[in-house]
Every structure is written in structure tokens, then in C-alpha cells.
Amino acid sequence: MADYEDTQAGHGHGETRRDFLYLATGAFGAAGSAIALWPLIHQMSPARDTLALATTEVDLSPIEQGQSITVVWRGKPVFIRRRTEDEIKEAQAVELDDLPDPQTDAQRTKKPEWLIVVGVCTHLGCIPKGQATGDRKGDYGGWFCPCHGSHYDTSGRIRKGPAPENLPVPTYEFLSDDLVRIG
Amino acid sequence: MTQPWMKNRLVQWVDYRLPMFSFMEKELIDYPTPRNLSYWWNFGSLAGIVLVIMIVTGIVLAMHYTPHVDYAFDSVERIMRDVNYGWLIRYIHTNGGSAFFIIVYIHIFRGLYYGSYKSPREILWILGVIILLCMMATAFMGYVLPWGQMSFWGATVITNLFSAVPIVGDIIVTWLWGGFTVDNPTLNRFYSLHYLMPFVIVGVVALHMISLHQHGSNNPLGIDAKGPQDKIPFHPYYTVKDMFGLCAFLTIFAGFVFFAPNFFGEPENYIPADPLVTPPHIVPEWYFLPYYAILRSITFDIWFLSAKLIGVVLMFGSILILFLVPWLDRSPVRSARYRPIYKQLFWVLVIDCLVLGWVGGNPPEGIFVVIGQIATLYYFAHFLVLLPLLSFIETPRPLPTSIAEPVLGGSGGPPAAAEQPMEKAQ
User: Fold this and answer.
1) Which residues partner with A57 through β-bridges?
2) Average pLDDT over residues B346-359
3) What's the CA gap between A84 and A142, in Å, rounded?
4) What is the percentage of chain A residues whose pLDDT exceeds 70?
């Protein structure tokens, strides 16, 4: 009964021992629930087998100049274009001030001849046109996204339309002159 | 009044322990309802019935559907071709989605016209907006399940909206996908949540009903009931009216299911999903077109905010703004019948929403961009500028003194004479 009297006595005099117990219990419960919640949230992140598919090797030897191929990396299309001299010149000649997302061509390529970008529009994730020979390549000779009208240049940089960023360059490495590993 | 079956001993025995019979009597039979409700008040119960239809057909479809990227499309085709009455059940489910939205949109505009969101029904209104949001999430995830081209690319575009969130955007999108693109993990979780959400909706609908029955329905005059002469029991008056409305609805609905089952659909979605080919023109289902138009209307950056982020914020904002309507509209008069200016602005808003829908269904080029921008601006101006402003400049017409007055004549009639309809109902 001592406890009971204690709290009674505490009424009207600010904190009591019982208030402390309420707070401590509440904090303990909240922290515990938050920790218990994490597995339920994190189960939705990419699973290990999904992460395991994170690299792709591509043989470049059959690609002619001016030709493009699409390979799949992490379920996304990756555009590999063997650019012509004109396309390289065009990409290198652009003033950085003209670009919504300024990047030089040199920053976006390891060898000027090979442009490797993720073929997913940075606006809302459509696949831009421009890989097949008959495709509309947009006003800057690179790619054109038909969903919301974004134009990319020969370096995969955004030039016109709603997309905020350039086509991302994936991590890649030339294993030899004809073999590249993406991821 | 007491129903005769309430005198049954067994009913009384059960009711003493579980008051389901007295609850039904109070909320479904005796429930006093304004005597002047028009057919615009049918759409609430109609929405409830369609929700039940969707749950029943959905559970049945789930018995045959396979949520896997390799089998989903084929399992839906199997439902259409091989499962007994599968075609019927699926067409009811797909067209039921469209019907649900038509009904709910009419229900919402009814509320806007007659000021049903005003005190003391603010929470009732907010619960309704929450139901709309849940419906949109459910419909979006359900549309992904057949795994056609529009399913896949709709899912890609909509989930990518979250990448507009500054800094953590990409992390959120990867988390939503469970991978690096919309893929099997995405399909699986959408299936799980598509099955869950309708029951969440049922829960919020229950709260919506409790809140409704606290103060009863609003009515076309927008004035409070002054006494029992202004109300009639729900049964048989409105049960009959709701049943008649249901029959009319089912007739039209059956017309679509049997004669134009793909009227609301997109032919592109009968092509299996291909992650490497984007369809030339991605459009959402018709009920999302106005929001889609708002999303695409922003083609310019403002300061450090990207066009994409502003578009996404406005798109969600176009619905979230509804939460504030009870406080944006300061006019004490509920019904637009007595608000000469608001009445006109209401119809302008309706037309504005239809224009947004039309723009949303067209490619974002040329004149459509400009029309979309003007319509988006007007949509927000209606709620944020015109609605608050009206409360100050509009002079409402005089309100009738009671609901019964226009019906019975005079000053609302003496209570004794007006009680008659109540007595008949016994």
C-alpha cells in the first residue's frame, strides 16, 4: 500500500514515481516496437538472389561503328553504342552551359568510341527510343523518350523535356578491348 | 416503433447477449433520414454494394490467378478461356473497378455541391477522402496483376514518381520494387496488398458509417432537421429507393459487362509485359487521367525544385487538398441551391476536372500542355482562392425554415400533422 500512498501524495506536486514508470514503460515499448518493425520493412528491400544478379559481361566484338545494342543488367536495359566520329565530335563540342545536367562527354565515357548508359528515362522510367535503326532519335541524335517527350544527345545527356538528369552511366570495366563487365 | 420479429423469444435471447437485432433496427430500419433526399443520395449505398461485388469477385479470381511474372498473364487468359464463368467474373471485376470510381466521384461531387463536408460532418468527409485514397492504391495495384504492357509500364511510371522525393527517392523506389526494376518481387507484393486493401476500405467505410449516423445525412436544402416532421424512417422509404437505384445501376453495368466489356480497358494490356519495350503512349486507367494531366502539366523548374518533383507534389496535392475543404469553405450555408455564385463555380470545377481527364488521355504535346496547365491552375485556384473568397463576397439566398416547409406548405406544419408519415411507416 506504500506505493499507492506514494502516488496519492504525489498528486498535484509535479512528477511522481508512477509518471516515471509510465514514461519508461512507454519508451521501452516504443523502442522495442520500432526494432521489431525493421525486419517487416526491410523484407521489401532487394533480396540476396536479386542482388546476386548485379553484374553482366558483354562481348563487344560484333558491334559495328554506329550500331547500338541493348543488354539487360539488373533487369534494366543498358544501351551500348559504338559511336561514329561525328557523334563523338558532336557530344564533345557541346557547351556545358547548354546542359540542364552539366557533364562533359569525357566524364561519361571511358573510351570515346563506346557510350554505355542505363536506358531508362530519368523522368518516370520509360525506355527511350533510338536503339533500333528506324527509331526516332530526338532532336539531338541520341534518344527520345515517347512517354513524356525527353530528348537525349549522343552522350545520353538530357537536352530537352521533363527528365531532370542525364541517362546514368553504370559502373563498368573493360576486361579486354572486346569485353566489358557492367556492374 | 418495434419490429414484430423483435418479440420473438429467440431473437430476444440472442439480442440480450449480442445486440445485433436492436442495432439493425436502430441503424437500418428506424434510422431517421431527411424526408427530402434526392437520387444523388443513392450513390453512398451503391458504392458499398459495389465494394462487396468487388471483394466477392476478387476472392474468386484469386483462386485461379498466379502472381508470378512468368505465369500471371497466362493465368489471367486461362481465367478468360478455361475457368467456368471466369470471363464473367473477371469482366465484372474489371468493369466493377470503373463503376466504383464513377459512383464514388458522383458521391464526392454530390458532397461538394450540397456542402455535405460542413460542420458537423468534417470527419465524415475526411474519412471519405481516405477511402478514395485507399481505392486508388487498390485499383493501381490491381491493374498491375494481369502483367500486360500497360500493367508493367503503368507500375513503372507510378512507382518512379517516388524517385522525385529529394535525397532518399531512389532508395524508396528500390524498396518499393524489391529490386532494380518492377519485377517479380513487385508483382508479389502488389498482389498481397491488393488483397489486403479492400478490407482496409471496409474498415474505413465502417467508420464513415458511424460518423454518418452520428448526425444523419445532409439533404438537398442543406439545413438541419428541425424536428421529427423533417425525417422519415430509413426503411421502407430509402431501402426501396436504394433498391430501385441499384436495379438501374445493375442494368447499365450488365450492359457493359456483356456488350462492351473492354470499353474502359486499354488494348495494349492484352500484350504480355515486356521490360525492354515501352509502349508508344502510356495512359493510366480513365479514373486516373485528371491526376495524370496535373502530373504532366509542370514542364518547368521553379527555383531549386525540379519539374518532376512539383508535378508529383501537385498530383498528390490535388487529392490531399480535399482534406482541407471543410475549412477552406467558410460559408455557413451548405447547399449550393442557396449559393448563387458557388453553384456556378461548382459546375466550372466539374468541367475543369473533365478537361483535365481529356488532357490526361492525350499525348503531352502542343496545345494539350497549355490546356493542362490552365486547367491545373484553375483546379487549385478553385479550392485555395475562390472557395475562401466566396465566403466573404457571396450573399446567400434566404434559407427555408424547415425541410418539411416546402413539402407540407406553411411554416413547416404543426408537429401533429407532420407526424403522419412516421405513423404510416409503422
Assistant:
1) A181
2) 97
3) 12
4) 93
Which residues in chain B have their CB less than 8 angstroms from residue A147's CB? 157, 278, 281-282
The confidence band for B382, taking pLDDT boundaries of 50, 70 and 90, is: very high
Average pLDDT score, chain B: 92
- Long-range CB contacts for residues B159-167, cutoff 8 Å, separation at least 24: B159/A125, B159/B186, B160/A123, B160/A124, B160/A125, B161/A124, B161/B295, B161/B312, B161/B315, B162/B312, B163/A125, B164/B306, B164/B308, B164/B309, B164/B311, B164/B312, B164/B313, B165/B309, B166/B309
Q: Is A50 on the interface with B (CB under 8 A)?
A: yes
Chain B residue set in contact with A, beta carbons under 8 Å: 153, 156-157, 159-161, 163, 174-181, 183, 185, 189, 275-278, 280-282, 296, 298-299, 306-308, 311, 364-365
Residue A75 and residue B183: Cβ atoms within 8 Å? yes
pLDDT on residue B407: 66
Instruction: Give the C-alpha separation, B42 to B53, whole Å.
Output: 17
Distance of CA A135 to the CA centre of its chain: 25
List all residues 6 or more positions away from B145 whose beta carbon is below 8 Å from its beta carbon.
B65, B67, B72, B76, B151, B187, B190, B191, B194
CA angle A76, A80, A81 (to 5 degrees): 145
Closest residue by Cα to residue B219 from B126, B115, B124: B115
Q: Is B3 helix (H, G, I), strand (E, B) or coil?
A: coil
| pLDDT interval class at A11 (50, 70, 90) | low
Give A-chain residues touching B276 at CB under 8 angstroms.
70, 72, 77, 127
| Tens digit of each residue's pLDDT (9 = 90 or more) over A57-97 | 889 888 888 888 999 888 889 999 999 888 888 888 888 88
Which of the 8 DSSP states describes residue B41?
Answer: G
pLDDT at B412 > cutoff 50 = no
User: Is B217 among the catalytic positions?
Assistant: yes
Task: Give tens-digit pLDDT for B28-86.
Answer: 999 999 999 999 999 999 999 999 999 999 999 999 999 999 999 999 999 999 999 99
Q: Return the percentage of chain B with pLDDT > 90, whole number.
A: 80
- Label residue B426 by pLDDT band (50, 70, 90): very low
On whether the CB atoms of residues B280 and A136 are closer than 8 A, the answer is no
Structure confidence at residue A161 (pLDDT): 82
Nearest CB to B296: which of A46, A148, A164? A148
Chain B CB contacts of A125 below 8 Å: 156-157, 159-160, 163
Q: Does the pLDDT of residue A27 top 80, yes or no?
A: yes
- A–B CB contacts, 8 A cutoff, strictly below: 82
Q: Which residues of A touch B283 (CB under 8 A)?
A: none
Among candidates A45, A77, A162 on the partner chain, residue whose Cβ is nearest the Cβ of B276: A77
- CA nearest neighbour of B278 among A127, A13, A112: A127
Q: What is the largest CA-CA distance in chain B?
A: 75
Chain A residues in contact with B280 (beta carbon < 8 A): 146
CA distance A31 to B191: 31
Shortest alpha-carbon distance between residue B346 and chain A (Å): 31
Considering only alpha carbons, which residue of chain B is nearest residue A165?
B306
**Catalytic-residue membership of B7:** no
